[in-house]
Specification:
The structure holds 2 protein chains of 2 kinds.
Chain A lengths: L1 H4 L14 E12 L2 E12 L3 E5 L6 H8 L7 E6 L8 H5 L2 E4 L11 H10 L5 H14 L15 H12 L6 E5 L7 H16 L3 E6 L2 H7 L2 E6 L2 E6 L1 H8 L3 E6 L5 H7 L6 E4 L4 E5 L2 H10 L6 E6 L2 H9 L7
Parallel strand pairs in A: 3-7, 3-8, 5-6, 6-7
Antiparallel strand pairs in A: 1-2, 1-4, 8-9, 10-12, 10-13, 11-12
Chain B lengths: L3 H46 L6 H22 L1 H8 L3 H6 L5 H29 L11 H20 L5 H18 L14 H6 L1 H14 L7 H27 L2
Helix pairs in contact in B: 1-2, 1-5, 2-5, 2-6, 2-9, 5-6, 5-10, 6-9, 6-10, 9-10
Classes of the chains: A alpha/beta, B mainly alpha.
The site of adenosine-5'-diphosphate has 11 residues of chain A, from strand 2 and helix 2.
Keywords (chain B): Antibiotic resistance, Cell membrane, Membrane, Transmembrane, Transmembrane helix, Transport
Subcellular location (chain B): Cell membrane; Membrane
Membrane topology (chain B): Multi-pass membrane protein
Chain lengths: ~325, ~250
Amino acid sequence: MTGISATPAVHGHGLATGEPVVRARSLVKRFGDITAVDGVDFTIRSGEAFGFLGRNGAGKTSTMRMIGCVSPPSDGRLTVLGMDPVREGASVRARLGVCPQEDNLDLELTARQNLTTYARYFRITRAEARRRADDLLRFVQLDDRAASKVEPLSGGMKRRLTIARALINDPEIVLLDEPTTGLDPQARHLVWERLFQLKQRGITLVLTTHYMEEAEQLCDRLVIMDGGRIVAQDAPRALIDAHCTKEVVELRFAAEDHESCADKLVGIGSHVEVLPDRLLLYTDDGDAIVPTVYERGLRPSGVLVRRSGLEDVFLHLTGRTLVEA
Amino acid sequence: MAHPSVAVLEYHLAGYRRVWLSTVASSLAMPILFFIGMGLAVGSFVDRGGALPVPYLQYIAPGLIAFAGLQIAVGEGGFPVLTNFKWQKVYDSMAAAPLRVGDMILGRLGYIAIRVMVAAIAFLVVMLAFGTVGSVLAVVTPVVVALVGVASAAPMFALAASVNSANAMAVISRIGVLPMMLFSGVFFPVEQLPAFVRPVAYVLPLWNGVELCRATTLAMTTTWPAFVHVAVLVAWAAGGFWLAWSRFRKRLGS
Ligand SMILES: Nc1ncnc2c1ncn2[C@@H]1O[C@H](COP(=O)(O)OP(=O)(O)O)[C@@H](O)[C@H]1O
Ligand SMILES: [Mg+2]
């Protein structure tokens, strides 16, 4: 398949990098009384990696499913590859790759059969389907499991196979809904490495994730969703610069009451966030203010100075941590 | 390039390929057991009365071949379809591809037609061995049985797309299949039924299939012209397809 085995960094789809490929305006999704997506605006451009960040229930999957043309919008406007996802859904889907939040592989078939049978839905010939399946199994490092049934494969292997399946039609846009959630760090690393390679080949990636460091590294731009709305969108670095100080001092206290500790910290750094298990003290120079903490009579059991990241942006904008502690 | 429904058919055949031998084995065992137990044993009583135009074994054989088609179709059109919606999420994966709901339904109906036809061929071999085939027209029986299968599977799809629990599925299948087996002229002519039950048999796919199978395997004349029986089966298939189509769209389109 051209996009996978050819030399990287070549865009094989005739779309200039930077062209809008997904455009949402006041997009709404309702399920009965529940408003899962509450009027969002975003534009995804060709060749970029675009992330949706948010807690469970924020509306990420609902948004992804509308983009994937399997769930009709309740209101607002959405175009994908310049087409209407409801009227021209099949034509859009022919050019998308989808890795859903939950794997929906056929557990009884072999890894390879999962790819070859799926390829046929895209009108790919049998011979070409076999060729692409073998290429993709190599790409996700499952070539040695090609002939084994899917059922006994590990979670990480199933996830990689689902990603391989999403690439079978050489898609222009790949939608990945929590591609690494639930995987152990090693499996996660392999998946992210492969996503980096796809990005380098000019494939547009649209993904949701819980993993901040990875989102920071992979996503060119991202939106933060909360309660069905977009609360911020920009490049990861720009979001951090706009909403946070450069550094964070994490303070842990053995037994003391966090609220009263926070009171004693007033005036140090730019502001303090109180979490169930720790206090976060925002400042541009962490090492410089740690002595002040001790001067005020506080005796933290743990002190950690780190650079601020997306997790802090999220906390600042929504008042809650991204992943439940 | 092949129609997308053919790709769905291929997918189902890929799964069938792993199990087809064991399904053929049971398609051979079922008639052998029924022929010995019912055909020969019960038949030795029935045939004393001489009420049927042919020996009892010959009478029930075409009924049972049609019933076998119904049974497979209900099995393959019910629970696995629910599984494909709810647990395995096969239909979600298909919906993400450039397939339409009609392709998904047609592809699986095609698979069931093939699956039923293979079983009917195995069944026919047993009928030949027991000497219950009296017409060369018998060669088209597998096609007739496949039509019975499609006529029964299509409405089952609609049902499977509408329920949410394996239990509901099992209860409804059993409630549907048993009376059909008893009241569709498999074991005795429907004329023996109370008059008010008879019209029910006339509209059921199984009775129409049984009539056609008696015509093809024994050259018996059908109650109505053959094309009417075929038309009833086609109506079930078409009506079932339409119902399934709207239920699938509803379930996948949230
Ligand atoms: N098919 C559905 N029917 C009813 N409610 C739904 C459905 N899908 C999602 N929701 C609700 O919509 C909200 C957003 O869900 P979702 O888009 O899955 O969020 P996320 O992917 O960010 O966790 C949640 O409150 C969820 O319960
Ligand atoms: Mg989700």
